[in-house]
Amino acid sequence: MHLLLLLSLAVSISIVSAFSPPDHYLIDCGTTASTIVDLDHRSFTGDGSSPTLSPSKSLALKTSYPDPNLSPLYHTTRVFTKPSDYKFKIREKGAHLVRIHFYKSEFKNIGTTCHDQFHVSANGYVLLHNFSAPKGNPRIKDFLISVDKDELVVRFIPVDKTSFAFVNAIEVISAPKDLIANEYVISDQNIVHAYETVYRVSVGGVKVTPFNDSLWRNWVPDDEFLKLDDGSVKSYKKLHFDGRINYRLGGASREVGPDNMYNSARFISSLNDSVPKLNMSWVFPVSKGYSYLVRLHFCDIASISIGMIYFNVYLNGNLVSENLDLSSLTNYMLASPFYADFVVGPEKFSDVIRVDIGPSKSSMPHAVDGILNGLEIWKMNNSMSSLDGEVCVNWLESKNQSGGQMSRLLSLTAAVCLLAIAFLVMRRKTEAKDYVGWSRVPVDVSEIDLKSSYPKSAVVNV
Fold this sequence. Notes:
Elements: E1 2-7, E2 24-28, E3 36-37, E4 43-46, E5 58-62, E6 76-80, E7 84-89, E8 94-102, E9 115-116, E10 118-122, E11 125-131, E12 139-147, E13 151-158, E14 163-167, E15 169-174, E16 183-186, E17 189-192, E18 195-202, E19 220-221, E20 237-240, H1 259-262, E21 264-269, E22 280-285, E23 292-299, E24 310-315, E25 318-325, H2 326-329, E26 337-344, E27 352-359, E28 368-372, E29 374-380, H3 393-398, H4 403-434, E30 457-461
Parallel strand pairs: 2-4, 9-14, 18-19
Antiparallel strand pairs: 1-26, 1-30, 2-15, 3-4, 5-6, 6-14, 7-13, 8-12, 8-15, 10-11, 10-13, 12-18, 16-17, 18-29, 20-21, 21-28, 22-27, 23-26, 23-29, 24-25, 24-27
Membrane topology: Single-pass type I membrane protein
Subcellular location: Membrane
Transmembrane segments: 409-426
C-alpha cells in the first residue's frame, strides 16, 4: 500500500470573499424552461433552451405525478437511445466539479423491452460503466476532472440497442484553486487524476446540505461508519461549537470545508490523571483496484488552551502521522481548520479503508487526546483513465460503431486496452517486489512550513 501524505498548504487568495467560479453551468435536463429553481435556491437552465445539448435523437420526459418533496430537477428527464453529448465551453482551464443527477422514475414511450444501462465519459475519462440507476431516492454522482481543453464533453452511451441512457441534471463548476492538488509525485512521475467522491462525512454532526456549503455539497453524519464492536464508542465524545470558525491564510478555506462541518467533532479526552488507551475508528467499504485520496479535516474546537492537543493518525493500521500538533499547524489559533490528504494505494486483499485517531506519546491528561471534524474519500482513476472498471473510452466508443468499421476499430481498441491492462499488471508486480515490510518516514507535520504554496509529501511503503 502506498500512503502519500499531502498536507493542505495552498494559500487562499481570499478567505472572506464569496466563491465566484469562472465556469458555472447548472443544466436541468428534459425541459425547455429557461429557469428552474431547485430546493437550494439555485437557478438551473433547461437543456432544451441551452446550447450545451448537442443535436441528437432524444426524448424529453415529464413526470405525470411529481413528488412535491423532490427537487423540481427530478420532475423532468432527458432520455437517449444513441450516444449523445453535452458540450460545455470552458473559460478557465483546470479542475472542474462535475455532478450528474439521476432519478429513476416512469419511462413511458420508450418500450417495454428497453432498460436503462449506459456508460458516461468526459474528456477521455470513463466516469460510469454499465451504469443502471437504482430505484428510490435520487442519485448524484460527484466527480472532479482536470480540463485542459476549451471544451468539456460529457457523453452518454447506451450499452446496446435494447438499452437507453438518461439524466436529470448536470452541474459543471470551476473548482477553487485550493480545493485539491491535480498532480501527485508517484514513482517519479507527475500524474493528473480524475476523482469520484465516494464519501463525504461530517464527524459528530448532522447532515450538511448544499444550501449550507459554498460548493453545494452534501455531508452525511458519521454514525454508520463508526466501528463499535469493541464497545469503546461510549468514549467517543460529540461536540458542537457555537463560536466562529477562524479561517486563515495557509489553512482550509470555506470552499475546502464549510463552517457547519468544522463546528462539530468527535474527540477523546481523559477524565482523570491518565491518558485513555483507545482509538476512535471508522470503517469505509471501497472497491478494489483503485487508489483513494483520503482527506481528514481537523479543527480544534474542544481545547480550552493552545498547545495541549497531540495525537496519532492511522490508516488501515499504519501510523501515517505521529504526534500531530494542531496548535503549531494552525499558528497557535483555536477553532482554526486544517486538513491533511493521504493517498492509499490499491491493496490486494483489502476492500475497506479504516481510519483511527488516538492518543500519542505526547498526549497529556486532562486535555484533548484526539479529534476529527470531517472526512472525505475520493476514488482516483486507474491507468486506463477509468473510474469504473478496467475499460477505456475508446473501447466504449467502439461498441457503438457499425459494420466492418466497428470490427476493425474494436480489434484496434481492444489491443490498446489489453496493452494498458498488461502494463498495469506488470507495474503492480514490480511495485510489489520493492515492498520490504514497511518503512516509516518522518511525518512530524509540525515541521512543515505553513507559508508554502505547494503541498509537501511523505511516502510510506508497506
